[in-house]
Amino acid sequence: xxxxxxxxxxxxxxxxxxxxxxxxxxxxxxxxxxxxxxxxxxxxxxxxxxxxxxxxxxxxxxxxxxxxxxxxxxxxxxxxxxxxxxxxxxxxxxxxxxxxxxxxxxxxxxxxxxxxxxxxxxxxxxxxxxxxxxxxxxxxxxxxxxxxxxxxxxxxxxxxxxxxxxxxxxxxxxxxxxxxxxxxxxxxxxxxxxxxxxxxxxxxxxxxxxxxxxxxxxxxxxxxxxxxxxxxxxxxxxxxxxxxxxxxxxxxxxxxxxxxxxxxxxxxxxxxxxxxxxxxxxxxxxxxxxxxxxxxxxxxxxxxxxxxxxxxxxxxxxxxxxxxxxxxxxxxxxxxxxxxxxxxxxxxxxxxxxxxxxxxxxxxxxxxxx
Length: 370
Description:
Shape: elongated
Number of strands: 23
Number of domains: 2
Strand order of the largest sheet: 1-2-3-4-5-6-7-8
Radius of gyration: 25 Å
Mean pLDDT: 90
Helix content: 10-25%
Strand content: 35-45%
Low-confidence stretches: 356-360
Largest sheet: 8 strands, parallel, barrel
Order of helices and strands: EHEEEHEHEHEHEHEEEEEEEEEEEEEEE
Structural class: alpha/beta
């Protein structure tokens, strides 16, 4: 997870409001000074960074490399150590890279007032495999977003002085890990009734939006986009936190923290409160959400057999949904459509999967699912 450090070295007129809003957003890393340290020193859970070493911060920041190296040579320093430097020349860039390779500091905060993109591209390229975190000091949200996305990898964290509460909202939103999952159309070729089955409702700890749902499939060949219950009807109130996902045997896409793979699968029967799943929009934009609870009940179901195309190959896939008006798949135009209104020949949005999986992870092995 990318790190947010808020600069509270100065105490402005809205200091207390901004600190409280930071707590509300679960932002708990603060750069303080002697002037502001007393406001934080008795608060648990937070991490205090400071260039004023006399106040014994959790994480010490040196600004003079000679003093830093003298302290390291004496063996006075043990962990939680950082260095702050302004990038003014190519020599400064090289100095930061060389320091990061020594392993003597846990993080380096770099700022650049003129040239920004090129120096940070070079730092990210050289440091992304090091254990030393690269923190970019930025002026505003636009600059923070740029630093987090430079070379796609981005910096490891952001140091910023918030101007108002909206800055904290925007900063927190930037930290949500989002990525894209490819969606395509699949044609419905058969619909079967299942008189009763164990159905799984996923109630998340987040509010889901129109156009958003979860990718569910009976096999790892592919997954249909099942829409969240965000719509009001004359008989049922909306449940904007819920996806009525499918039967207990179905697969669902969940986060994969392996940087080379964006997802893995779980069975719906494996889910429970506290686990995480992927919420996906009708444009394929995915985000990680936490489960608050899972409800499993016996309900009548519909089984949809589908066909999608990948190149010149036809890919068979299927999903099982509760037979009820409030359960919706997403059609080829991105609109939510009730499962009771879907007919053979209709097209819905799906994601073509990896095929064979072993404990939820894609593998190169012959496995037949039908």
